[in-house]
Amino acid sequence: MAGLRALGVLSRITVRHRYTLFSDSTRRGFSVASSLMARTHVNYEVKGDVAVVRINDPTSKVNTLSVHMQKEMAEVLGEVWSNDAVKSAVLISSKPGCFIAGADINMIQACKSAEEVTYISQEGQKMFEKIEKSPKPIVAAINGSCLGGGLEFAIACQYRVATKSKKTVLGTPEVLLGLLPAAGGTQRLPKMVGLPSAFDMTLTGRNIRADKAKKMGLVHQLVDTLGPGLKGPEERTMEYLEEVAIECARGIVNKKIPLTKEKGMMQKVQDYVMSFPFVRNQIYNTVQKKVMKQTKGLYPAPLNIIDCVKSGVEQGSDAGYLAESQNFGKLAMTTESKALIGLYHGQVACKKNRFGVPEKEVKTLAILGAGLMGAGIAQVTVDKGIHTIMKDTTLEGLNRGHQQVYKGLNDKTKKKSITSFERDTTLSNLTGQLDYSGFQNADMVIEAVFEDIAIKHKVIKEVEAVIPPHCIFASNTSALPIKDIAAASKRPEKVIGMHYFSPVDKMQLLEIITTDKTSKDTTASAVAVGLKQGKIIIVVGDGPGFYTTRCLAPMLAEAVRVLQEGVDPKKLDSLTTGFGFPVGAATLADEVGIDVAAHVAEDLGKAFGPRLGGGNPELLKTMVEKGFKGRKTGKGCYVYQPGLKSKEVNMELNDILESFKLTPNPAVSSDSDVQYRLVSRFVNEAVMCLQEGILANPVEGDIGAVFGLGFPPCLGGPFRFVDTFGADKLVEKMRRFEDVYGNQFTPCPLLLDHAKDPSKKFHK
Amino acid sequence: LKKTLSLITTCLVLLTAKSKKTLAKPGVKNVVLVEGVRTPFLQSGTTYADLMPHDLARAALQGLLHRTGFPKEAVDYIVYGTVIQEVKTSNVAREAALGAGFSDRTPAHTVTMACISSNQAMTTAVGLIAAGQCDAVVAGGVEFMSDVPIRHSRKMRKTMLSLNKAKTLGARLSLLGSIRLAHLSPELPAVAEFSTAETMGHSADRLAAAFGVSRQEQDEFALRSHTLAKKAQDEGLLSDIVGFKVPGKDIVSKDNGIRPSTMEQMAKLKPAFVKPHGTVTAANSSYLTDGASAVLIMSEEKALAMGYKPKAYLRDFVYVSQDPKDQLLLGPTYATPKVLERSGLTLADIDVFEFHEAFAGQILANLKAMESDWFAQNCMGRKAKVGAPPLDKFNMWGGSLSLGHPFAATGCRLVTTVAHRLKKEGGQYGLVAACAAGGQGHAMVIEAYPQ
């Protein structure tokens, strides 16, 4: 008993003792503690003489540079700078997959004027300038995405350490949102990595992996990722990164790690060459020309970026920073930027499964048909840990498909994004076969056989005889209504459409089509598979041509008419690309296949009548008869020669066009009119799909059009285009075309609604 | 007083009492180690430099015969391990046996399993005996790093092979003309994983970091290994060595890689694989070594019938494998609990531990992993940790770090050392464990032969 009491006293004493011992620091500590309590996004801890500053946005999966984050960061850095015990600092994120993913887009969207946005930029510039001039070295410890403002933050620090994790990427993707790196990025990058690399980074917005970043001089040191130890791999890797970064920070303070790297011979030569204004001007001009060629001047951001870099290099940093912040303000107010940001948000929304978690995860996926589409689907499936069965009817077909999958993976090996060993183990997930063996284990079957309803019916019956009851049957048709295909099924609730776009490994969109009978779980499962395959997904209602094909058909029909009216394919292409389509209409027809286009035109023509007509469908048929099926046969609108990138107009086409010649009506045949004839039919059909409930919402309509059909991204999709261009103006144009061509240009009721009431917008 | 005394004795008995009195199983043949020898392990490029792998193997085999006086005709079978193969002697077991004067009627085959190749050779022998196929098997392993096969580039090989088939002078000349400078760059063998392309040292450094093993801990462990090896060498405990007269050179009778240094000296070295912040250095890694080892394994009854006194019983063994990237060198952690379970022993039953020391960081990471419940539960699917071996029973006569590590010869050295240490220290059970490239591992329980 006595002992117990003694212990109690002892503990009380020690407690009291602790208070007295630290009374000094508690007073000081209190203010720290109170602000610590208040701080939610940025915190720091002092380890010896190094302050470890941790970033963690508790409300999100990623860290963004929000106003709140910046405020706390300024406070914390202020304390770090004023604390004499601290000699250096390490900046690290508490989120394993993300350093800082960029500035908060909502913060910029909330601004009403260019001045407000310019102010945000200037605040960022000031903060990073302070960091750049920090009297105590700051080491950025990077694991996961370090993008946009995050990268600008990192390059303002004195030293950068990054993990070799595949998640670690550095880049300035602002240009993809129609913006520019506005917190000193356009000024610091050229100094750090040289003009050519800086232009490459800021103008393409591409992600740079850690090893490449080290070679470019963007980061100083790399840290390996670790496996499991006494903790989980991610957690321990973060700790390790922090430990190494702390050592670096001490090394810099002790002058053991020099901050200026000795320049190599190549670097010296490059610097010398760059010292001539003539050389630099040459670079600006080349880059400018390249940008103009690629964007047709439709995107202001890249040109502004060149301008900012140029101002900084030629007129000094004051001018550079000023140009950066002002251009940023201007850009944020452009319709292009708003369209691109809209697409970004839409893309995020279309990467979620709004149908919930499927009851059964798809572990074995069978694909019927090893053609371009079938093998393409296999390509994006096999590397996601899904056992993939690829079935074809002929050994030649199977061999071709197998080679396509192999080539896709081997190209990745050549680019070093995977090792040859990963390629081989991935391929071991693929089974190629001519029969239905193993289908009893399939969780989903996707058919990519010829577009003929009789063949589809035959296939669905054969498949249903061997697959288990839970297995989903998906059709990769581009035009046949799913309910017609499902008519042959014993279990229509398990039938769904999964419309992929060619080439499957490059095109991001997947259009999923549900019928009235398709069960919710079937849809959830199809979306889950699509998401695993890395697709952006829109889910649309059933009907001829669904959404995407239906929008494309009238535009292609119009394109045929334009050709008949004597516009040559090259001119047609330049008109469409001039409007912002990444691929011209004639080239697109060749890529899709003239036979496919003819087929679709005929099917949809039957379903929708003359409204979907335009040019003479016999023209396409004649082309097919002559063997001009597009790129796959070497001839279409153009002549394709293997190994040659440039293509010539197919001269033999002229004879056909001559026999189908129409006389253009000069009232609707100016370049601009031709462009709007093509686009307005596309847009009108899209709006009609929304009106008819094929589309669930305008967002999916915009995403589908941009990512599946190449609708001009700078316009943000057909619905945003109507919002910004004005429905009334569009209707006015269409009425003019209607007078000449009839009901093909009759605006649909929903579009007319919007034309009548300007306050009606598809996007809020 | 009497009471206390008896209490103390019970305590003592309890302390030394084993979970099992013996690991002999009814109906299972007892397999014994009769003798084990090895050539001195030399750093590659030293006295053995001009030999060939089978020469070293010959020396070990001859040494075994010489030491045991075993009649050559009584050897039923020979199994030998090797890792880096000399293409001329791809079945090095056969070439060495013939060269060592074994009967040409004794079949021989070669096995390979990276650093546990001779363990594989020994367990193959155990299997042959347990299955009643053989009574006396010689097992061993050889590694010769002074000369490794360096190949022409694939392009050059292809050209040369086509040259064989070219019929006309013109065809030959055009083939010769196609040779470019790039054809001439040779392909060097690397101690790297084929599957991950990562060198073993790099993986070891990451492993050490994953378990938070510091540079100082690693240097200390390496120093311990060298110090203990030196002591064992000086005290004449490394009695498995047989001298080897190298043609044209001296008789070699000692390992030449044992160099106890100081912590200060070791601290000066720069990291060898992960630069600049890595912790694995030349001083805390095992080095490239030439050497060979051989053991005679027999059924107990045959050994006794022939008048041999076995050194130890070879009991349960396991092979394990795991992720070749992040857990490349954790074989002992996975193998130890498994083999103990198999034999019905606990870690406390083991008197002698001999673990293969690939890197100090690797050993320390394994010790930490074995001591971690988190690792056992999250990575191995076990309920609890197995526990780390106490260091006063662990590699007491040095290890691969100091004695050297001829890849395929190390396994036999470990087993023979356990047998010798059990005898010297009076223990009953010993445990051998080792990691190997490919993310594999091995462990074996050895029981002392009653005196």
From TrEMBL, chain A:
Residues 545-640, 677-756 form the 3-hydroxyacyl-CoA dehydrogenase C-terminal domain. GO terms for cellular component: mitochondrial fatty acid beta-oxidation multienzyme complex; mitochondrial inner membrane. The record marks E152, E174 as: Important for long-chain enoyl-CoA hydratase activity. Its main location: mitochondrion. InterPro entries: 3-OHacyl-CoA_DH_CS (IPR006180), 3-OHacyl-CoA_DH_NAD-bd (IPR006176), 3HC_DH_C (IPR006108), 6-PGluconate_DH-like_C_sf (IPR008927), ClpP/crotonase-like_dom_sf (IPR029045), Enoyl-CoA_hyd/isom_CS (IPR018376), Enoyl-CoA_hydra/iso (IPR001753), Fa_ox_alpha_mit (IPR012803). Its EC number is 1.1.1.211, 4.2.1.17. Pathway: Lipid metabolism; fatty acid beta-oxidation. It is found in: Mitochondrion inner membrane. GO terms for molecular function: enoyl-CoA hydratase activity; long-chain (3S)-3-hydroxyacyl-CoA dehydrogenase (NAD+) activity; NAD+ binding; transferase activity. It comes from the Eukaryota. The record marks H499 as: Important for hydroxyacyl-coenzyme A dehydrogenase activity. Residues 365-542 form the 3-hydroxyacyl-CoA dehydrogenase NAD binding domain. In the N-terminal section; belongs to the enoyl-CoA hydratase/isomerase family. Heterotetramer of 2 alpha/HADHA and 2 beta/HADHB subunits; forms the mitochondrial trifunctional enzyme. Also purified as higher order heterooligomers including a 4 alpha/HADHA and 4 beta/HADHB heterooligomer which physiological significance remains unclear. The mitochondrial trifunctional enzyme interacts with MTLN. NCBIfam families: fa_ox_alpha_mit. This is Trifunctional enzyme subunit alpha, mitochondrial.
From TrEMBL, chain B:
It comes from the Eukaryota. GO terms for molecular function: acetyl-CoA C-acyltransferase activity; acetyl-CoA C-myristoyltransferase activity. It is found in: Endoplasmic reticulum; Mitochondrion inner membrane; Mitochondrion outer membrane. Its EC number is 2.3.1.155, 2.3.1.16. InterPro entries: Thiolase, Thiolase-like, Thiolase_acyl_enz_int_AS, Thiolase_AS, Thiolase_C, Thiolase_CS, Thiolase_N. Residues 308-447 form the Thiolase C-terminal domain. One of its GO terms (cellular component) is mitochondrial outer membrane. The active site is at C115 (acyl-thioester intermediate), H405 (proton acceptor), C435 (proton acceptor). Residues 31-301 form the Thiolase N-terminal domain. It catalyses: dodecanoyl-CoA + acetyl-CoA = 3-oxotetradecanoyl-CoA + CoA; decanoyl-CoA + acetyl-CoA = 3-oxododecanoyl-CoA + CoA; hexanoyl-CoA + acetyl-CoA = 3-oxooctanoyl-CoA + CoA; butanoyl-CoA + acetyl-CoA = 3-oxohexanoyl-CoA + CoA. Keywords: Acetylation, Acyltransferase, Endoplasmic reticulum, Fatty acid metabolism, Lipid metabolism, Membrane, Mitochondrion, Mitochondrion inner membrane, Mitochondrion outer membrane, Signal, Transferase, Transit peptide. Mitochondrial trifunctional enzyme catalyzes the last three of the four reactions of the mitochondrial beta-oxidation pathway. The mitochondrial beta-oxidation pathway is the major energy-producing process in tissues and is performed through four consecutive reactions breaking down fatty acids into acetyl-CoA. Among the enzymes involved in this pathway, the trifunctional enzyme exhibits specificity for long-chain fatty acids. Belongs to the thiolase-like superfamily. Thiolase family. This is Trifunctional enzyme subunit beta, mitochondrial. It comes from Astyanax mexicanus (Blind cave fish).
